[in-house]
Design brief:
single chain, Heat Shock Protein 90, five-stranded antiparallel sheet, globular
Length: 140
């Protein structure tokens, strides 16, 4: 998938604290500003939580999420791979944020925020796995 460091998590929310620690440790080792770390932790929380909550339905046995993190040439690359149901979160229509809260449909705001917090986000389906890649420039 990617170079850099990776961790495997069971698909449950218990892994979030370790995920935050993994992200902050790797990025601190690479001199990434805390403001960027906070953005990427928020994005990771949204992506990870969505995979856990919606990616597997009732099928939890063997459910796993791999997260890879690399910093190279002034860009952080964070990759989420899961063996859940095929789902491209980027194919979903952006929410109409001009509507009042009462008028908006439920869902989609989190991925909208993630898309607007990173420089690039891509989805692919490889080897029966969802692969979501986020890139964020850390150049001064």
């Amino acid at each position: 998938m990617t170079t850099g460091r990776g961790r495997r998590y069971d698909a449950n929310l218990d892994g979030l604290e370790d995920l935050y620690s993994f992200i902050s440790t790797v990025l601190a080792e690479n001199g990434v500003a805390e403001s960027i770390v906070a953005v990427l932790e928020m994005a990771a929380d949204e992506i990870f939580s969505n995979i856990v909550n919606y990616g597997y339905g009732e099928k939890r046995e063997g459910a796993e999420i791999d997260v890879f993190l690399d910093v190279k040439d002034g860009v952080v690359e964070m990759v989420f791979c899961d063996n859940g149901s095929p789902f491209d979160p980027l194919a979903r229509e952006a929410p109409d944020i001009s509507l009042s809260l009462e008028e908006r449909q439920i869902g989609g705001l989190g991925i909208h925020i993630v898309k607007n917090s990173v420089d690039e986000i891509t989805y692919s389906r490889r080897d029966d796995r969802n692969v979501l890649t986020l890139k964020k420039s850390v150049k001064p």
